[in-house]
Amino acid sequence: MKKLFVLAMLVLAMTGNVIAQTKLADAQQKQVIDEVDRAARAMSTMQCDFTQTKTMKMLKKTMNSQGLMYYKRPDKLRWQYTSPYDYTFIINGSMVSLKSQKTHDKIDVKKNKMFDQITKVILNSITGSGLKNSADFTCVMYKNGNIYSAKLYPKKKELKQVYQNIEIFFNAQRTMVTSVKMEEKTGDTTVIKFTNVKTNAPINEKVFAVQ
Amino acid sequence: MRKFLLFSSMVLLLCHCALARGNDIPDWPDSCVVDSWEYNILIQARGNNVTGLCLMNLYPDSSIIGTVVNDFGVKVLDFTYAKGKAQVMNVFGPINKWYIRRVLRGDFAFILANLRRGEDVVAKKRRLTIMPNGDIQVANERYKINYVFSQISCQRAQSSLLELPSAAEIIQTQFHQ
User: Fold this and answer.
1) What topology does CATH give the domain A22-201?
2) Is the ipTM of this complex over 0.85?
3) A47, A201 in Cβ contact below 8 A?
4) How much is the pTM?
5) A-proximal residues of B, 29-68, CB under 8 Å
């Protein structure tokens, strides 16, 4: 009896995480995706601070960076790392600007499939839009307490080469993305958390200028 | 049958360890790290630039394990270095081709052997130059690949963490005129 009890406790402990996160039924998933989509459409701008934690499997080490994010619907984004180094990534329509301390590159994403896919992932991950009928991902929704998350499995070759899956976490009202977890094929993971979020406030166009 | 199972399990375990580390480097615990170095890295090849971070750990047997991640936090490659030989693994999908890995392997063997020597080095088609600003530039003259390593100062990283402005502050100071 004692052995059975210990075994049962062990099984419970091992499956604890699985039980905590419940996969939504199809109808409920559709409903939540509709809600997220509606909220994303209602959001014209978003600006916030972010923290990024990358866990590197090979070095058994984490790396933290911080920065600022500005988004304007439908396709403008400024992603600016401020610590521990300066790096700015701007998406403005089909043009992308990558500016570090040493280099400044401009890329037309129409001419680069990989970049095109990655910019789509970033834009969709920030607002949670694009979960509906996505040609790029298979989406599975989960619920953990009152927190919903969407786990995206890439369908296209370009993204499959890099990501195992991308998980987007929403606030309890399902109106905003609070964090994004990206699992790379190499076993590294990156978690991005958004704080001090301000939505629908005007943002100067200069913020998104690709010069 | 039992012996066969035991044998095949051991073979699988050994293969797994070899694959995980890439060469003869043991799986050192964190407490064995002798030194850690962090560099900003710029890789230039055929008009394309990759900028990011190169992080590496030195272990008691002088072996090195490291990672290059781009500025966006996506892994570019992992590398190991021991007894004069380098291995590269987990190379970023689109450039994960055997002929690219072979060139990278050679370049990283040269880089890791000489990065901290503090003097210029020339060997066959590779050249390491200490720049006046302290950056280390490595050129693969055969394949026209350039690597620039700039050591990151810990002080700078800490001060920028403390002085991080909020999004609202940046908007007010930089963009609202």
Assistant:
1) outer membrane lipoprotein receptor (LolB), chain A (2.50.20)
2) no
3) yes
4) 0.77
5) 30, 40, 42, 49, 51, 53, 55-57, 65-67
